[in-house]
Amino acid sequence: MVNQDLNPYWLLGEIRLGLLWEDGRVDTTMLGKHHGCVYKLAVEPGSAHIFYSSGEDGFIQHFDLRSNSATKLFCCSSSIGNNKQTLSKVGLNSIVIDCRNPYYFAIGGSDEYARVYDMRKCQWDSARNSDRPVNTFCPRHLIGSNNVHITGLAYSSFGELLVSYNDELIYLFEKNMHSDSSPSSATSEDSKNIHEAQVYSGHRNAQTIKGVNFFGPNDEYVLSGSDCGHIFIWKKKEAKLVRLMVGDQHVVNQHEAHPHIPILATCGIEKNVKIWAPLGNDIPPLPGNVKEIMETNRQGREDRSQVTLTPDVIMHVLRLQRRQTLAYIERRHNRADIVSDEEDAEGYLLGFLDGDASSEEDYPGNSRDCNIS
User: Fold this and answer.
1) pLDDT grade for 58, boundaries at 50, 70 and 90
2) Is the pTM for the entire model greater than 0.85?
3) Domain holding 292: CATH number?
4) Among candidate residues 46, 95, 45, 49, the one with its CA nearest the CA of residue 70
C-alpha cells in the first residue's frame, strides 16, 4: 500500500509529491518550484489531483497530479505609492480556496490586501496579465500601510474570510464586505465605504509566518497561534476568548482541525506535532495570568508598530529568521547523544479540557529569536 503526501519544501521553494511505503520508505518527486519560500498549498475541494501553490516570488501555480508539469497562472503585484504604472511584486504567504465555490481562491502576502480571484477568469498563461482580483479585503485603518502584511488566511464553510496580519490583529470579513477600491487605486479616502470586520485580539504574530483557522462543526470558533507559545481560541460571533492553551515552548505557528471529529493538530518551533482532543464535559476557566499574557502581547505589538519598515525589508528579515530557526532545528536533530530521536518523536495527546495553560515563565524564550525594535 502506498500513501501520497504533498509537501512544500519551504526554504527551497520546491513542491514535492511524497510516496509513503508500508516499510517506511519515502520517495519524493519534485513537481514544481518557486523562487523563494513556499508556505501554503491549497487543494481543490473534492479533487484528488488538483492543487495550487503560492510563493514569495508572487506567482500562483496550478498542479494536476495526472500531468508532469506545473502551470504558472499569474504574478501578484501592487502599485508603488501614487504611481499606478509602477508595479511591485507581492510576495505571497497564504492561499485558500472557498469550499462553497471552488472557482474562488484568496491570497495574501507582503502588503495589506487579501485578494480574491475567480479561476475562470485566469488566462492560464503567466505571460498575460491575469492579476485582476474580483474582490479585495482590508481593514480601513490599514489601507496605505507599509509596515503590515498577511501571514494567514482561512475560508469558513459560510464563505467568510479570516485574515491574520503580522504584528497586528485577526479580522473576519463577511462575503459581502469589500474595500470598494482595488489595491492599485485604494487611498485612505476610500475607506469610508468599507464595512467594519470582526476583530480578534490578545495574541502576538510577529516572529514567524502564522496561520489562522476555524474550528467546530459549524466553524463556531477561531484559532490562532502566538509568539508567547499559546493557542488562542475565540468564539467567532462575539470574538470572546474562551480557551488559552500552552502549545509550544517558543511559538505556535500552524493548526489544522480534523474535518469531522473534534481533534486539533498544532505545531510550532519544536519539532513535534501535538494532537489535542476533548477529555471531559466541564469547561475550565481561563488561566489566572491571561490578562498578563495578553497585555505583554499588546505592548510588544504597540512598541514594534512605532518602527516603519517596507514590505521588502520585512520579508527579508523573516527569511533570515526562518533560516536561523531551521538551522536550530537541524542542530537539535543531530544531538543524538543528548536526546534520542525516539523520545523527541513521541506524540502528545493533550485534551482541550485537561491541558493546563501555564505561565510564560515556565517556557523561557529562545535566545536565537530575531526581534525588530
Assistant:
1) very high
2) no
3) 2.130.10
4) 49
